User: Which sequence fits this backbone?
């Protein structure tokens, strides 16, 4: 008897679409098993990643969406390069363990000509983020850096702390 009612209910495309939407939104509700953390700021060091060798990063989260920036300074003999990654991030599910998606740009150049002739590359990152209850953040990623001439996939890992 119940089976026939369920079958009849899902024969209507509109109801089936609403049911599918409700199932997809369940992980985004605060009723899920992982509580939403109130610490919205993350600072850390990213090894490799968006700035190629390393960067000191700050990210501010607004629920599941974040905005971040970093800085790295490299010295090569008498030349100094400044690298600045800027990005927006998205963590679609979970608060302790989550898929991590980000996109942005990395700007770099010699320190004395940084604002005159910067080099810019787009970045798309995918990874996994673990946020411990003590505030430790570990985020391994693969970043696709690209310009008009092509691109490369580059690994990275951020180790940081939330506050």
Assistant:
């Amino acid at each position: 008897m119940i089976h026939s009612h369920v079958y009849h209910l899902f024969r209507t495309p509109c109801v089936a679409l609403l049911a599918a939407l409700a199932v997809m939104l369940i992980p985004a509700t605060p009723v899920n098993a992982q509580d939403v953390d109130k610490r919205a700021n993350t600072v850390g060091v990213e090894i490799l990643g968006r700035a190629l060798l390393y960067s000191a990063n700050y990210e501010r989260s607004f629920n599941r969406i974040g905005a971040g920036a970093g800085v790295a300074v490299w010295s090569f003999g008498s030349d100094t390069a400044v690298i600045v990654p800027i990005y927006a991030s998205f963590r679609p599910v979970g608060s302790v363990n989550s898929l991590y998606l980000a996109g942005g740009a990395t700007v770099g150049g010699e320190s004395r000509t940084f604002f005159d002739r910067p080099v810019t590359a787009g970045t798309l990152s995918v990874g996994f983020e673990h946020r411990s209850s003590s505030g430790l953040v570990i985020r391994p990623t693969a970043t696709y850096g690209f310009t008009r001439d092509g691109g490369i996939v580059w690994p990275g890992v951020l180790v940081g702390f939330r506050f």
In short: The beta strands are 41-48, 54-62, 65-76, 79-90, 97-110, 119-131, 136-147, 150-162.
